[in-house]
Amino acid sequence: MSSDSNTAESGQLDFIHQPHDKLFKTCFTDLESAISFFKNHLDKRIVEAVDWTSLRRLEGNFIDEHLKATEMDLLYMVTIAGRTKYLYILFEHQSTQDPRVAFRLLKYMVRIWDHFIAENPPPAKLPPILPFVLAQNNKPWTISRQFIDLVDLEDNLALRHNIPDFAYELLDLKTLSYEGILGTPMLQSFLRALKAAAENTLLNDYVWDEALLAKLPPGALIRVLMYIYAVGDIDKKTMLAKINSLKDPSIKENTMTLAQQFKQEGFEEARLQGLTLAQQFKQEGIEEGWQKGRQEGWKDGLIMAIHNFEQILGQKTTAKDILIAMPIADLEERGNQLKAAVNQLLGK
Parallel, antiparallel, or unpaired: how do β-strands 71-80 and 50-58 relate? Predict the structure, then answer.
């Protein structure tokens, strides 16, 4: 399968632009969360037959170019009884439902098979594709999931066996209750946010469930909060008050930098101009924190700055105990390297 063409900057730094895309891919590129999703929403017979240890995400994007603002897709490979199968998930976040979703899925499935054929000459057979639609709409899904229902066959049903037909699986977030959202903490938190966004209730207690948010990795937590701010009709003051109301110490620590960004002058203007969160990080908040840590030898300050830089760069956050064990000089060197990388990406 071909590789995605996203640039490093859009993949690592673009927190506010295309928030649906970022949230969807953050969650579903996490294999544990993807497996959790399929196990909770596929037919039990399929779930029991799949070797879930074999699940792998395949690179590629198969949706129409003009629909990329309202659709995202991911393709996975699994094995059943040692044979390859594909799981294809299409994320729809349109305000209105397209009655020809099944037709578009057929096109995307053919594109997937085209890729397979290019790499697997005859007599290799085409792998089955199970299409799955994750729908984020403000009204319940009413469209038929059968492709055949798009075809006018009323005058001659004898033609039915000559027409391609399939059905897609569907998770309609509008009709799914918050209590019915199951899976890993990341999956639950992300699906709750997607559901609340469609209902314009992003400040509800389900989305801000501290017991759930505390289980998220720092980067995922930031993504959820930035998604809430980017798509919700929430002003800066309200968002900051909500963040400050959080009581869990681990959440407070991980949201400290984000809260600082909301306090800075010009953040609202930057948001309206479509600037990324990464561009906000180069403002004085982090810069002052870094200088304070470097000048005073304050190890906690250095560690916090290093974690901030790693998040900006999209890198895995270094465990705090590892950084604590490092000499100040090594921390300074690590911080300076990361700071230089951030400045380079920001064109500073």
Answer: antiparallel
Sign of CA dihedral 27, 29, 34, 37: positive
Q: How many CB atoms lie within 10 A of CB 237?
A: 10
Q: Per-residue DSSP letters for 230-255?
A: HHS---HHHHHHHHHT---HHHHHHH
CA-to-CA separations, 270 to 158, 267, 337, in angstroms, rounded: 60, 5, 27
Q: What is the number of other CB atoms lying within 10 angstroms of the CB of residue 250?
A: 15
DSSP of 109-144: HHHHHHHHHHHS-TTPPPPPEEEEEEE--SS---S-
Q: Taking the model in full, what pTM does it have?
A: 0.71
Render pLDDT for 228-257 as a digit per residue (tens, 0 to 9): 988 887 887 888 888 888 888 888 877 776
Tens-place pLDDT, residues 298-338: 577 788 888 878 877 778 889 888 888 888 888 888 888 88
Q: How far is it, in rounded angstroms, from Cα 168 to Cα 37?
A: 16
Helix, strand, coil percentages in the chain from 3-state DSSP, rounded to 5: 50, 10, 35
What is the SS3 assignment for 170?
strand
Distances (CA, A) of 292 to 158, 295, 325: 78, 5, 20
Task: Tell the residue number behind the tokens 């900006």, with chain if given.
Answer: 312
Two tokens, residue 141: 């899904």
Backbone dihedral angles phi then psi of residue 317, each to the nearest 5 degrees: -70, 125
Tokens of 274: 């479509």
The two structure tokens encoding residue 55: 């699940």
Residue 175 CB: number of other CB atoms within 10 A?
A: 14
Q: CA-CA-CA-CA torsion for 154, 157, 162, 164, nearest 10 degrees? A: 50
Structure tokens at 261: 């960004």
Strands of the sheet containing 71-80, edge to edge, are 50-58, 71-80, 83-92, 129-135, 169-172
